[in-house]
Amino acid sequence: MSQFAEHRRNQSTKGEIMADSNGAVDTAQLLDSLPTGLFIGGQWRDASTNETFDVENPATGEVLVTLQSANSDDAVAALDAAVEVQKDWARTPARERSEILRRAYDLVTERTEEFATLMTLEMGKPLAEARGEVKYGAEYLRWFAEETVRQYGRSQEVPEGGIRMVTRRKPVGPCLLITPWNFPLAMATRKIAPAIAAGCTMVLKPAELTPLTTYYFVQTMVEAGLPAGVLNVVCGTDPAAISEPLIADPRLRKVSFTGSTAVGKILMKQAADSVLRTSMELGGNAPFIVFEDADIEQAITGAMAAKMRNIGEACTAANRFLVHESIADEFTEKLVAAMEALTVGNGLDEGVNVGPLIEEKARKNVAALVEDAKQNGAEVLTGGGAAEGDGYFFQPTVLRGASTDSRIFKEEIFGPVASVYEFSDEDEVIELANSTEYGLASYVYSEDPDRMWRLADGLEFGIVGFNAGVVSNAAVPFGGVKHSGLGREGGAEGIDEYTEVQYIGVRDPYANQ
Ligand code: NAD
Asked: Where is the Aldehyde dehydrogenase domain (predicted)?
């Protein structure tokens, strides 16, 4: 028996509640309870190789858990399991699927402390934000529990007569879901919940940097009553070895990916060969526009939320602060003061607002963007480099005056760095905001309601937050244009990504045929 099988013997497939009556979680016990293998066909099983990988705490550099690494054979076994139950799952009454999701919502909510602790341990975000993600991630389960029973079709007589048509929604079929490390729970539930609502089976591949939240979530879904084979989870050190054979397999019907634009493009090219349905939630380069008539206090509150949520590691993160020249000094001073009031540290510690970046590579990338900005005219008003500690900490930083040729204007920062630029009129700022290949989130601060519609018309972004610094919600159609992706997650639209419309034409009995 392998060391993993030995370890697993003591585990049930169910996630246990470990918080005591004060809500405190015994982290060692929680980590020890997690499975270390792969979840295929309703069972945790060993990977087919002896390869393993470590999951690290980015705040301390310590290894949290060692997991087994899946290879191509394991990925195909996971697809086999998904294919086997697809037909039965599609025929499961909508009400049953809905109730599984609703139970999962209750269970995840009950286990807020366990989920939040795991996320802080493996991803680094402060505990308060991790609790926020549990709420946000769980809302997808509740939202799609409600949407499951509201999948409508149309009925119509064609204009010429002769045929009556009915449309209906059918599940796309087995899906490959690939998720990133920055929102370990919400990015998974945003895909899994609509797939369950639509009646699709799945192979989920979480990010190898943060798989623990997903593993705990799988245990929760089992307890909520999800039948074996509907959700299968494989994770490993070579993500392409998992995704490539599945994308090439004609039994797979869809790939839904959240991650970088570079990887999204690779997957889209692979998917082209099988004309596979794709949903792509990719990178962003959000403008945060502040007009001269904005309420500056509100704009600063929104700026801090849009920039610093998730340590700046969000696809919606404000990347370019475009501020009207007449208020740029005041806005920048207040932004610097707000950034300097933050506490950097281990997200498990009380009072910490800014955790570590996910890994050393990420910290080096943020530092390189700051250096390049300095070479291109930026002044560092606060921060500017690594912060003290064993983890991958970076100081909250404000830059001003970088040129629009600098890398920091063009690339996703993914860290706690705000870069301020100036503009003088509306047309100029719309052009500046759109001068990027990305088109996910954008933010506009102004007290002029007419401006809202002009900006919404002019901005080439899937999301516009008007006097709102937080735009994510289970009820909204989240997604981007241009190189930020294809498709929408959440909202009434989210389920469309997992359904095919079938049209049935029936001969009209009164027609002369
Ligand atoms: P990433 O592209 O490196 O990884 C995302 C996932 O893809 C991970 O599970 C990874 O293992 C897998 N992967 C990596 N290379 C692969 C390959 N060659 N073939 C198959 N799978 C592969 O992205 P990341 O660093 O984990 O996440 C950060 C990125 O995600 C940022 O660009 C961010 O903007 C984006 N993101 C977008 C959204 C959105 O909704 N648009 C949400 C969150 C994050």
From this structure: 44-503
How far, in Å, CA of 231 to CA of 223, rounded? 13
User: How far apart are alpha carbons 216 and 207 in whole angstroms?
Assistant: 14
- Closest to 210 (Cα-Cα) out of 185, 232, 233: 185
Global pTM?
A: 0.96
Can 110 be counted among the known catalytic residues? Answer: no
Tell whether 421 and 346 lie within a shared domain: yes
- Residues framing ligand 1 (Cβ under 6 A): 178-183, 187, 205, 207-208, 239-240, 243, 258-260, 263, 266, 281-284, 315, 412, 440, 480, 485
Ligand 1 pocket check: which of 260, 269, 392 to mutate, most ligand atoms within 8 Å of Cβ?
Answer: 260
Ligand 1 centroid from CA 284, angstroms: 12
Q: Give the pLDDT confidence of 167-178 residue by residue, as tens digits.
A: 999 999 999 999
Better-scored residue on pLDDT, 7 or 386: 386
Burial class (CB in 10 A: 0-12, 13-18, 19+), 105: buried
Q: What is the pLDDT of residues 330-367, one digit of tens each?
A: 999 999 999 999 999 999 999 999 999 999 999 999 99
Same domain, 157 and 80: yes
Residue type, 194: P
Q: Is residue 512 part of a domain?
A: no
In a domain? residue 2: no
Cα atoms in the 13 Å half-sphere on the side-chain side of 81: 25
User: Distance from the CA of 207 to the center of ligand 1, in angstroms?
Assistant: 8
- Cα atoms found within 13 Å of the Cα of residue 287, Cβ hemisphere only: 33
Instruction: Count other C-beta atoms under 10 Å from residue 11's C-beta.
Output: 17
CB atoms within 10 A of CB 450: 8
Domain containing residue 129: 17-282+489-499
Query: Which H helix or E strand runs over 280?
Result: strand 277-281
Among 239, 240, 243, 266, CA closest to 254: 243
Q: Which residue among 129, 281, 422, 489 is the active-site one? A: 281
| d(C-alpha 454, C-alpha 219), whole Å | 48
